[in-house]
Design goal:
By secondary structure, the chain is α/β, with parallel strands linked by helices. Strand 12 and strand 13 form a beta hairpin. It is built from eight helices and 18 strands. The protein folds into three domains: 91 residues, Translation factors (Elongation Factor Tu (Ef-tu), domain 3, Beta Barrel); 124 residues, Rossmann fold, CATH 3.40.50.80; 107 residues, Roll (Ubiquitin-like (UB roll)), CATH 3.10.20.30.
């Protein structure tokens, strides 16, 4: 697992509750637009991992910037809002994430963001505008202009790329209800011209229900689910008891105590997973170096291959049905269903 040292170069409070933290780019660190950086924060003597979407573009910007929204009682966000200063060094992992542009980039792109969901989308938009000839539509929902992350920069981009970049702003404090919240009808109206466009992709990031509304509306209109990409980053801030709170499936099978045989490159480990644990929880308790970031089935850092046995994932926002059928699993949400599991890790 490669670790990098990120030196804080600037901290800018951009809305009442959100700040941008820019780091000097460490030697050898690279990323695709839309990916996230996992910071390893030492808080009260304990390592806390948190993934933060990167808002810069590797090939345009010399710094690596993340945006951090303050969450009441969130230990990581409180730390990043109250304890750090320019010049401090934070540890982080290699960039990761699948919320990236396809190659070639489609000629028409639609981005739909709410609040801090703009963080990865801002990077994707700048990448498309600066490095392709594609057209971009952004739908962006916020409480007010003052609460809008990157409002000034996006307005500037719109005037620089006025032929190819359109923004539909939604502010919930707007007295005109049609411009206050993104409704299904309003979304249909905006996306209608692109229904039969073959080269099209939609990227959405925001609260879960917001993205569900976007996905269901678009699929119902005839857009292919394969052209819609979602990024979920509503992280629970209390990592220690997150697993139970996420189980909401009424048909949960019976979990089993299991022995896991794990291969990472040429090393083999064997460890026990109790029925109430996830594979990742058990591995970390035994200091086995499995990769992870969100611990919540949302980021894909912990994907491994299951070659023997079966697991139940209590949450999965990232793997497709096809990937699951081919044996890919998320260790952070996987519970054993058989007494023996064989797992191997691709270490690039
Ligand atoms: S650690 Fe993020 S999906 Fe498992």
């Amino acid at each position: 697992m490669i670790k990098y040292s990120f030196v804080i170069n600037s901290i800018t409070d951009i809305t009442g509750d959100t700040r941008c933290i820019s780091f000097l780019k460490p030697e050898g660190f690279s990323y695709a637009s839309g990916q996230y950086l996992t910071l390893l924060l030492m808080i009260n003597g304990k390592e806390v991992r948190r993934p933060y979407s990167i808002s810069t573009v590797d090939t345009l910007d010399s710094e690596v910037m993340i945006t951090v929204k303050r969450i009441e009682n969130g230990e990581a966000t409180r730390y990043l809002h109250e304890q750090i200063k320019v010049g401090d060094r934070l540890e982080g992992l290699a960039a990761n994430g699948r919320f990236i542009l396809s190659n070639p980039i489609p000629t028409q792109l639609l981005f739909i963001a709410a609040g801090s969901g703009i963080s990865p989308i801002y990077a994707l938009i700048r990448d498309v505008l600066y490095f392709s000839r594609s057209s971009v539509v952004l739908i962006y929902s916020n409480r007010s202009i003052d609460d809008t992350i990157f409002y000034a920069s996006l307005t500037q981009l719109q005037s620089t790329f006025s032929q190819r970049f359109t923004i539909h702003w939604f502010f919930s404090n707007n007295k005109n209800l049609l411009q206050a919240r993104l409704s299904r009808l309003r979304l249909e109206e905006i996306v209608e011209p692109y229904i039969h466009q073959s080269e099209f992709a939609c990227y959405t990031c925001g609260p879960y229900l917001y993205m569900e509304m976007v996905t269901i509306t678009m699929v119902t209109l005839g857009f292919s689910p394969n052209s819609i990409f979602k990024e979920t980053f509503t992280l629970p801030e209390d990592e220690d008891d997150e697993d139970g709170s996420l189980i909401n499936d009424e048909n949960i099978p019976e979990f089993k105590d299991a022995t896991v045989v794990l291969s990472i490159n040429k090393n083999e480990y064997q460890f026990q997973v109790a029925a109430h644990q996830t594979v990742l929880q058990a591995a970390l308790l035994q200091k086995i170096p499995l990769n992870y970031s969100c611990k919540n089935g949302m980021c894909s850092s912990c994907v491994v291959n299951l070659s023997q046995g079966e697991v139940y994932m209590h949450y999965n926002e990232v793997l497709t049905d096809k990937e699951v059928a081919s044996g890919r699993i998320l260790t952070c949400t996987a519970h054993p269903l058989n007494p023996v599991l064989h797992i191997n890790v691709d270490e690039g």
